[in-house]
Amino acid sequence: MVKYSPVALRLRQLADGGGRAIYIMYFVYSIFNKKHNKIYIGQTINLKERLRLHNEKGFSKSYTSRFDGEWVLIYSEETENRAASLKREKQLKSFQGRQFIKKYIPR
């Protein structure tokens, strides 16, 4: 069973009106743009919304908005909290992490 950050859990309880606890899951993800053969690695709470924003150029002047073509999700994993997702994101952005991600690029 995954343990969740007490701070994240309490923030979510407050957002929910102080009632029941809602667990916040973070995701580390990698997306791929076949047209330009580019990979992007990031982290988020809402994976579906983040992918939509990448494809609709919702982040002006960002790395992904520089390239036309569709960004597709090629890899994701859940983490227990934001600190863990940032740590994992950094690992995946390393040379060995990028080699790991490249195995998931569709051919």
Describe this structure in words.
With 107 residues, the protein is an alpha+beta fold. It has a single domain, classed as GIY-YIG endonuclease. Helices cover 36% and strands 22% of the residues. It contains 4 helices and 3 strands. The protein has a 3-stranded antiparallel β-sheet. It is globular, with a radius of gyration of 16 Å. The N and C termini lie far apart (35 Å). The model has no long low-confidence stretch (mean pLDDT 86).
At a glance:
The chain has 107 residues and is of the alpha+beta class. It contains four helices and three strands.
In the residues, how many domains can be counted?
A: 1
What is the H-and-E element order?
Answer: HEEHEHH
Number of helices: 4
Strand content: 15-25%
- The main sheet orders its strands as 2-1-3
CATH topology: GIY-YIG endonuclease
Q: What's the alpha carbon Rg, rounded to whole Å? A: 16 Å
Which CATH C-level class is it? Alpha Beta
Derived from helix and strand composition plus strand pairing, the structural class reads: alpha+beta
Task: Give the beta-strand count.
Answer: 3
CATH architecture: 3-Layer(aba) Sandwich
Mean pLDDT: 86
Residue stretches low in confidence (pLDDT < 50, at least 5 long) are none
Shape: globular
